[in-house]
Amino acid sequence: MDDVDKSAHADQQSQFNLLRIVFVSLTAALGGFLFGFDSGVINGTVEAIQAAFGASDAVTGFNVASMLLGSAVGAFFAGNLADKIGRRRTMILTAIAFMVSAWGSGAAGSSLPFILARLTGGLAVGAASILAPAYISEIAPAEIRGSLSTLQQLMIVIGLFMAFVNNYVIAQAAGSASESFWFGYGAWQWMYWMELIPASIFLLSLLLVPESPRYLVAAGQEAEARSVLDRLGTAADVDAKIADIRSTLEEERQPRLTDVIQEHTGKIHPLVWVGIGLASLQQFTGINVVFYYGGTLWQAAGFTEASALLTNVVNGSVNVLFTFVAIALVDRVGRKPLLLVGALGQALMLGAMAVTFAGAASGDAGSLEMQGNQGLIALLAANGYIAFFAFSWGPIMWVMLGEMFPNKFRGAALSICGLVQWVSNFIVTWSFPVLLSSIGLGFSYGIYAAFGVVAFVFVRLFVVETKGRTLEDMSREAEAST
C-alpha cells in the first residue's frame, strides 16, 4: 500500500471512529433527553392531578417537588455505584427506572403511588444528570470533549421541549389535561406514558455501547480497556494511554467516596467546593421555576391556560436553539468566558422581568394584569434569560463537572455535586410558590437576578479553564496543587 492509499485509509478510519464516538455519546445523552422530558412533563399536569387526586395545595406542591428529592438521592449514589459496577451497567438501571416511573406516574390513582413513581423517576433523573457527562468525558478526545459533553444539555433541553409539545398536543386533542383521551384514560396520564417510547430506545441503545475505558482500567480490566480504546481510536498509542490513566488512579483499588478528602489536610479537595458552587448557582438563578412552573407563572402574569402552555413551547424552542450555540463555542471560546457572559446576561434579563412584574397591576386571585407592552417585555426578557442560560450555565456546568475532577475521585465528586445541584433545585422549586404568594413575582425574580451577579463573581475568582486539556493532565495538576 503506497503513502496515498495509507493516508486515505487513515482518514476513513478516523471518520469511522468519530462516527462511533458520536453514536456512543448520543446514546449516553439519551439519558439527558429523559432527564428533560421527565422534568418537564409535570408542567402541564399540575392542575389535572390535583383534581384527579383531590389533593390540597401542600400535597400538590410535594407531588411536583418529589421527583427532585429522588434526583438528589439518585445523583449522590449513582457516581459511587458507577465506580463499583461501571458506567454502562448503571445507565442500564437508570433506563429501567425511567420506564417504571413513566408507567407508574400515569397509572397512579392517588398522591402516594404518584409520589413513589415520581421518586423513582427522580432517582433516574439524578443518575442520568451525572452519568452522561462523566461517561462522555471519559470516552471523548480532548479536542472535541466539550462539544460532545454539551450533547447532554442539548438532549435535556430537547427533552424539555418535547415534553412541552407532548403536553400541548395531548391537551389540545383532549380539550384539556383533565379530560379523557385514548381508551378512556385521562389526557394527563398519556402525557406520562409517552415517555415509555424514548425510555425503551435508551435501554436498547445502551446494549450497543462499550464501557468507559477509564472505569475498566480502575477495575483492573486493562485488556478490555485496550480493546475499547482501539475500537474508538481516541489514542495513537493505546498502551501508553492505559499507562497514563493508571498513573492517575490509586494503586490496587477502585475509587471511593472518601477520596474527595485530602490525606495531608483532612479537608475536602478545593475542586469539589468549586463544583459545589457551580452546581448550586446554576439553580439559584431560578431556571427551573420557568420550566416546572411555566404554566403557573404565565397564568399568574395574566396569560390564559392555552397561551401559557404555548408559551412553554416557545421557551423550549429558544432553549434548544441556543444550546446549539454552546456546542459551537465551547471548544473554541472556552468554558469560563461562556459562564461569565451567561451569568451577567441572566442577571440583566431577570432584572428586567423583576421590574416588569413589579410594575404590573394586581388582578383577581392575585394574578397580574399586564398593561400596554408589559406582557411582551416580560416574554422577551424571559426568553432572553433562557437564551443566556442555554449557551452558558445550562450545558457548561455539566461539561465542567464531567471533566474538572481527577480520575481517582471523579465519580465521588460528581455524586456530591449532583446531590447539591438537586437539593438546590428542590429549594428553588419548593420556595417559588411561597415567594409568589408572599412577595410576588417582581421581588422573587429580583432575588434570582442577584444570584446571577453572585455567579459572575464566583466564576471570575474560582473557576479555571479546562478547554483542550486531557483528563489525565488535569488530574495530575489537581494533585500537584494540593
Any overview of this molecule?
The chain contains 21 helices and 2 strands. By secondary structure, the protein is mainly α. The protein has one domain: MFS general substrate transporter like domains (Growth Hormone, Chain: A, Up-down Bundle). The chain has a two-stranded antiparallel sheet. Strand 1 and strand 2 form a beta hairpin. Helix 4 packs antiparallel against helix 8 and helix 15 packs parallel to helix 17. The longest helix has 38 residues. It is globular.
The strand order across the widest sheet is 1-2
CATH fold-level name: Growth Hormone, Chain: A
Instruction: Specify the number of helices.
Output: 21
**CATH class placement:** Mainly Alpha
Q: Choose one word for the global shape.
A: globular
CATH homology superfamily: MFS general substrate transporter like domains
Q: Quickly give the CATH architecture.
A: Up-down Bundle
Mean pLDDT over the residues: 78
- Tally the beta strands: 2
Major sheet, described briefly? 2 strands, antiparallel
